UniProtKB/TrEMBL annotation:
It comes from Juglans regia. Residues 1-23 are annotated as: Disordered. This is UV-B-induced protein At3g17800, chloroplastic-like. Pfam families: DUF760. Residues 7-18 have a biased composition (Polar residues). It comes from the Eukaryota.
Amino acid sequence: MDYCLSRHSTVSPATFSSPYPPPSLRHPLTFSPRTALNFPNNHLLSGRAASGLSIRPAGRTFPVIASAGASPCEPSSSLNSPLEPRSQPGKFLSSVLQNHRQLFHVAVAEELKLLANDRDGAVSRMLLTVGSDEACLHRRVAQLKEHECQLAVEDVMYMLIFYRFSEIKVPLVPRLSRCVYNSRLEILPSRDWELESIHNLEVLEIVREHVTTIIGLRADSSVTDYWATTKITRLMLGRVYVASVLYGYFLKSASLRHHLEQSLALANQDHHLGRRTSDQFQELCAYGVKNLVFDTVSNKHSVSYGQGSTNQGMKGESLKCYVMGLDPETLQRCAKLKSNEAVHLIENHSCALFGDGKTCLVENDEVILTSFSSLKRLVLEAVAFGSFLWDTEEYIDTVYKLNENN
């Protein structure tokens, strides 16, 4: 490698092609991603009651606006993000992203390799000293190194997600503790178009239905309707946000599984699997769904190699029909976060966004007055966050083995 970047060396400006494919102390939260999202019989969240969101129209008043861009809401945050990097690799990548953006993905790859080597080295030394007088010491060192690397990897994941938002020119909403004035919150500009642009048409249709279910307004509602105000507790707003993050993660997983099954069905139509070209295999692998291949073959509701009629029927099946037809076991498999790092990242991000800024506690009885437009902005951001998290998790796991979420 002609140029080597790490937090231990000086960064010099240059132009690199990105190797990244397109596409701590933790406090217990009431709106944990482990329990925030339930899928009722209607897998697309059939009613507002499914989310537990209670919306009451309120009289319109002159708003005090908290912008989601660079604003005094977050004076101490150089990136204007709710969660600050806690590790040295995270702070290093934050600096690279701000000052040498073109080197960001090279720096990420280098940091992930360093973290993987550090963790593996500590484990190797622990195994080599088993049975010796130093075994206890090296076991403790390996545990501390594992914890340190996990915090660093979570920061790397967060920086990658932040980068994806910056690509579509959408800043993350700052901490609400610094943006709510007199119990009033407004997020401007809305950035709805940019946040919707990351989805294909089929996914976008489902996302819009999710938004409609959450905020209670139809997609074709008037501008006046969207600027009407509503009351919601901070705790409920946090739960809605986390549920939408998980929903975005689920949609990414389900859409790729749907694409995979359609590809397998098309390749199986002539009953000659030996004729499948290497290009077809590369297309499947490019979507990063190798873990879903075996689920597809083993699941009773998935494609069967012996059912030609089923394959032909799936050819034209929409993503919405496919998702609604998934059995509960497959549905939960698609919705489950694959790594502990992803679970902790959602908890920490939500804590920073909705907590009080000091103890990360959410006051249940605090009622916030906000507009339907601001609610839509938060929900769309959360769905995009979940989609980017899926991509980031898949990429990092190819370099640094993440801890499985059991």
